[in-house]
Amino acid sequence: MKIFQQALSLRERRRGFHIITDEVENALPEISEIKTGICQVFIQHTSASLTINENADPTVRVDFEMFFNKTVRENDPDYRHDYEGSDDMPAHLKSALLGNSVTIPISNGRLALGTWQGIYLCEHRNYGGSRQLVITAWGA
C-alpha cells in the first residue's frame, strides 16, 4: 500500500465553477505509482466546494452558477449570518449542498475520470481569495 498526500493552494478565482483537474493531477504526480487506488480531494473552506461534472462545454458551468444563484438567493432578510456580506451565507449553503470533497478511483496510475468529467472548484464568494486543497491518494 502506498499513501501520498499534498497540499495545493489554488489561485483566487472569480465567483463561478472552474475546472481544476489539471492542477490536481499536477500537484500529486505520485498518482502514477498507484495501479489501483483512490484519490480524495478535500477543500479546506466553508464557502467554496468541489464537484465532478462536464469538462467540455463551458455553458454547463454557466448554467450551474445560474441554478445555484436562483436556488440559494442572496439578501434573504431571514439570514442571521450576514456580517461578511450578502454572498456569505448563500456561499455556506451552496457549499453544504455540493460538498467539501470528491473521491476518484485511480486506475493504472491515472485518475479514472470519465471522458467528459472534470473536477470543479465551485467558488461561491464574490471575493473568495485563494483556496486550499488537500489531495490524498492511496493504493497499490
UniProtKB/TrEMBL annotation:
SUPFAM superfamilies with a match to the protein in the record: YjbQ-like
Highest taxon listed in the record's lineage: Bacteria
Pfam families associated with the record: YjbQ
Membership in a protein family: Belongs to the UPF0047 family.
Name of the protein described by the UniProt record: YjbQ family protein
Protein source organism: Pedobacter petrophilus
The organism's taxonomic lineage, starting at the top: Bacteria, Pseudomonadati, Bacteroidota, Sphingobacteriia, Sphingobacteriales
